[in-house]
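Ticket 4471: requesting a sanity check on a complex prediction with NAP. Repro inputs:
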Amino acid sequence: MTRREAAKLIGGTTAGLLLPIGARSAGESSTMLTRTIPSSGEKLSVIGLGTWRALDVHLSADIRRQLEAVLSLFLNLGGRVIDSSPMYGRAEEVIGDLTSALGIRDKLFLATKVWTQGKQSGIQSMERSMSLLRTRRIDLIQVHNLVDVHTQFATLQEWKKQGRIRYTGITHYESGALSEIEKLMRSQKFDFLQINYSLMEPEAQERVLPLAQERGVAVIANRPFGAGDLFDRVRSKPLPDWTAEFDCRSWAQFFLKWIIANPAITCAIPATDKPRHLEDNMQGGIGRLPDPKIRRRMVELLSF
Ligand SMILES: NC(=O)c1ccc[n+]([C@@H]2O[C@H](COP(=O)([O-])OP(=O)(O)OC[C@H]3O[C@@H](n4cnc5c(N)ncnc54)[C@H](OP(=O)(O)O)[C@@H]3O)[C@@H](O)[C@H]2O)c1
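Returned structure tokens:
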């Protein structure tokens, strides 16, 4: 889809907003960066899409149009990973509906979760996710918040052998879970870890991210904007000029580039239901990344 087609899809008023954030100077790369999933060698783009709250909606005609624009832009700007959960209300159903209407399922990497106690209940939950997502194979299922993790993980391994899922994983969103995650990473072999990691919540980088690299586990960074709280910290602050050194044009790109500059991170999954924010976030996966010295400067800038 061209920028003009995207603008048409989104509608006159929002369309104009697409242009400034995405504008790149001549000679600058416009290709989304990718990282490799260690257990398979498959490549994923570094910016994905979270769906908590953003896609837990009733699809009125207006919202459908807006979210179709979000998903079309996501795909056309190089996105692949969409993360959901049975815990996110209508989100799985909305993804299934929109991706099948747009005919884009096969181009996406669909990740969801299992969040329940007991083997049978876990199986029922995953069958329901398949049906809501309107797919015969889910790319990744993760044990949500480590609930009944050993039982659910055993089923995930069986489903992977049967080809019903392609990858297994575990997820949490609180730094308090890091020591349990560390133990699990040492005792089990799973493909993905999803964890909170951002300028606001950097704790995973101490032990868990290096361990993930050592154990060959792909890492999805959730809550990349601290559920939006990071924007409050910079509300009246201008973006410093030196951020241009790593092709950064907005605070969203600043937050995302800091995350994906850590080589342990496979992909970050900011959530939005707005085409303009989606485009902004996707630009966070393009161009140069901050080196370790600049990353420290970025941390200092936010320590106020
Ligand atoms: N495994 C777990 O336990 C767990 C826990 C939490 C989250 N997650 C996953 O991680 C995803 C992301 O985390 P999150 O949803 O908590 O929050 P987040 O992505 O850190 O932040 C989302 C917030 O940032 C705003 N935003 C997004 N892009 C923006 C931009 N370019 N400029 C300004 N504001 C922007 C959004 O508002 P707008 O909608 O207005 O853009 C929303 O309020 C979730 O959706 C979910 O898929 C997993």
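Notes from triage: The pocket of NAP is lined by residues 50-52, 54, 83, 144-145, 171-173, 194, 222-228, 231, 252, 269-274, 277, 280-281 (CB under 6 Å). Leaving this open until the requester confirms.
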